[in-house]
């Protein structure tokens, strides 16, 4: 996982805990998860849109 081992992940978690506090961490995790989900959805939909635009432009007669 990107070269992160258990000690590195624990240190990152500890720093986040100190910075944001225990009450904000679930909210931060939910926001991060939603952003990743949205990014994946957008990256899967992008090729479909590009192919549709190419098909639409080839149907039009040249001016």
What does this molecule look like?
The chain has helices at 6-20, 25-59. By secondary structure, the chain is mainly α. The protein has one domain. It is flat, with a radius of gyration of 21 Å.
Short description:
The chain has 63 residues and is mainly α. It contains 2 helices and no strands.
Helix content: over 70%
| Strand segment tally | 0
**Residue-averaged pLDDT:** 78
Overall outline? flat
CA-CA gap between termini = 53 Å
Q: How many structural domains can be distinguished in the coordinates?
A: 1
Count of DSSP H/I helices:
2
What is the H-and-E element order? HH
What's the helix and strand layout?
Blueprint (H helix, E strand, L loop, with lengths): L5 H15 L4 H35 L4
Name the features.
63 residues, mainly alpha, flat
């Amino acid at each position: 996982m990107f070269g992160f081992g258990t000690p590195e992940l624990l240190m990152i978690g500890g720093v986040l805990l100190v910075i944001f506090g225990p009450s904000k961490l679930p909210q931060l995790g939910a926001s991060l998860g939603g952003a990743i989900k949205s990014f994946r959805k957008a990256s899967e939909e992008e090729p479909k849109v590009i192919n549709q635009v190419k098909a639409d432009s080839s149907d039009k007669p040249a001016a």
